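Quick one:
INPUT:
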């Protein structure tokens, strides 16, 4: 009992100290009001700002020394239209965000460098926060949230921020009991749009690959992302008095984050251009699926109809697999709109482009079986598929077989019937019969009454057994 009381008293003694670790001092919150320029490093973090007019001054960025002319920042009006095409709301000024952290896990990663970029008139303004002391993370986050609050309700734009940057920042804010409604608003992740348009067409969808292949931006002397966490820990370990001052490698990390912020507006503009003017049928199909995710079904249908009726199909340049996917997608949209005749033409087009395609064969066979009643043709279509459905194949074989068709009643004259020998039963035959000579169910077959004659009070009935 005494040992238990000692443990409880020890826990009470540790309680207030642990609470003070997670509590944000009010003095710190008041001391980090956003101010132009650079915040004193004694606060535990450094804030760096810059202003960019179009492409002016970008040649000063060391990483882009080889390609400054390729990096042309779009104007706010152009960028606004581009983001609307990507799914953002109209009339809001976007804020681009990117972070550098000590790891990739949400639980233990620490965001030691956070960057924002937004349009201020005709220029693009960037602001970066760099942590110089571990105990100042709450102050840095407070300053970040205050800046977002001053920018007003604006959609956040990031690259892979939906699954990493924003969840991490929300978790760190909760750790210090900071209200962060600015991180809960509208968010647009450019990685999702990039994957929809270029997955499978490019080696990968990393930001550096998109910069090189699409934007013509080449980074010279960039620090690998895997080495960035070690740079921060080395700066803390070697810093006098626990303050991580700027070093050459830390400057490389800051430049890396800055280039990420500068290329995000360009990537958004490039995405919008490809959405408006797809280069081929494959890209048109990707754009249509992107529009469907935004709920713009009629626009997706018009886009695919334009491409499937254009030269991309007639001259045979489109791959058969892409043509099959596009035709089936458009046929589904036509069927939803109640235009089954146009859908049937596209199902036939998809099947004729690749008769062995399981999806095309199934769609065309369904239409033939259920809407045209051509069982023999539907059976031929299913048999040509690489992966025919066994149940559909068996059903079509039964329905297409002449033996399964209902035998038509032979029209015979009473004279011919009279000439045929009739075997009269010596005793009355008890056979169940329906009223009016209707068919009678008998197992797999049915007994149908065809004719009855009366001889001396007895009735001779001729029956036919058919399936």
């Amino acid at each position: 009992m005494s040992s238990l009381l000692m443990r409880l008293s020890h826990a009470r003694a540790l309680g207030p100290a642990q609470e003070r670790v997670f509590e944000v001092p009010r003095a710190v919150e008041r001391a980090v009001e956003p101010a132009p320029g650079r915040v004193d490093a004694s606060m535990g973090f450094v804030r760096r700002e810059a202003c960019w007019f179009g492409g002016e001054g970008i040649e000063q960025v060391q990483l882009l020394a080889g390609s400054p002319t390729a990096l042309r920042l779009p104007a706010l009006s152009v960028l606004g239209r581009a983001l609307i095409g990507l799914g953002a709301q109209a009339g809001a000024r976007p804020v681009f965000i990117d972070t550098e952290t000590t790891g990739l896990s949400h639980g233990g990663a620490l965001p030691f460098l956070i960057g924002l970029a937004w349009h201020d008139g005709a220029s693009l303004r960037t602001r970066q926060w760099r942590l110089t002391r571990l105990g100042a993370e709450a102050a840095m986050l407070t300053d970040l949230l205050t800046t977002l609050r001053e920018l007003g309700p604006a959609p956040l734009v990031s690259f892979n921020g939906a699954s990493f940057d924003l969840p991490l920042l929300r978790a760190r804010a909760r750790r210090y009991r900071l209200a962060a409604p600015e991180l809960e608003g509208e968010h647009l992740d450019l990685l999702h749009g990039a994957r929809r348009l270029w997955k499978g067409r490019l080696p990968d969808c990393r930001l550096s690959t998109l910069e090189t292949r699409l934007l013509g931006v080449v980074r010279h002397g960039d620090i690998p992302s895997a080495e960035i966490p070690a740079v921060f820990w080395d700066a803390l370990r070697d810093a006098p008095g626990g303050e991580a001052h700027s070093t050459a490698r830390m400057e490389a990390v800051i430049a890396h984050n800055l280039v990420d912020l500068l290329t995000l507006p360009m990537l958004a503009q490039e995405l919008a251009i490809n959405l408006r003017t797809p280069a081929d049928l494959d890209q048109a199909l990707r754009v249509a699926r992107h529009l469907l995710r935004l709920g713009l079904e009629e626009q997706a249908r018009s886009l695919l109809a334009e491409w499937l009726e254009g030269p991309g199909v007639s001259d045979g340049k489109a791959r058969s697999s892409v043509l099959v996917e596009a035709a089936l997608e458009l046929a589904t949209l036509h069927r939803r709109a109640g235009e089954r005749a146009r859908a049937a033409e596209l199902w036939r087009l998809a099947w004729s482009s690749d008769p062995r395609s399981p999806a095309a064969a199934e769609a065309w066979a369904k239409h033939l079986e259920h809407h045209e009643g051509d069982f023999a043709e539907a059976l031929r279509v299913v048999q040509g598929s690489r992966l025919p459905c066994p149940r559909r194949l068996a059903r079509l074989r039964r329905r297409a077989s002449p033996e399964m068709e209902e035998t038509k009643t032979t029209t015979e004259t009473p004279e011919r019937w009279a000439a045929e020998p009739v075997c009269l039963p010596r005793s009355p035959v008890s056979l169940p019969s329906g009223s009016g000579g209707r068919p009678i169910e008998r197992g797999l077959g049915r007994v149908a009454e065809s004719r009855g004659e009366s001889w001396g009070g007895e009735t001779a009935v001729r029956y036919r057994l058919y399936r």
